[in-house]
Amino acid sequence: MTALQSLGSPPGGSPGGSVSSTGRGVAPMAVDLLCEAPERGLLGRVRVSPSGPDAIHLSNLLVREPFRGRDLGGYLLAESLRLGARWGRPRAWLEADDQGSGRLLRWYRKLGFHPMGEGPHGRPRLEAHASRVMPRLRALLGTRATSPLRFTFRTVPVPTPVRPTP
């Protein structure tokens, strides 16, 4: 799928993609959402985990170096919010690790995330409702998406750690 096609995806999935979920309102412990391209492999990823009754936690969002600057982080964020909505979880929170530059915090705030203090790892915690973020992502990515890069999304369940019995 092209970058622009991703923005117009129907609520139930991505054209040309294969984002899977376990059904509305039912969420696995966590999934890694992968953005992949034919013959290029993994472009980027983000971990999406249920958090509380109506939220998802986004962590480890990463776009590989050769593919940065093509707005793939925005597409991963949008697809994560769609996945959360399919799970019945319209809110999202994350910790921003911009290494002190402020650039990442400004980007998230521009998209509609608002600061909520410090997260569990000591970084700024930001939260947002998908209904606030998605229109801003569409506007931002719809005006800037010029790359003909074709990609698909795929979810991979994150194994639950097995704890030894005492």
TrEMBL record:
InterPro entries documented for this protein: Acyl_CoA_acyltransferase, GNAT_dom
Domain N-acetyltransferase: 1-139
Region annotation (Disordered) ranges: 1-23
Name of this protein: N-acetyltransferase domain-containing protein
Source species: Archangium gephyra
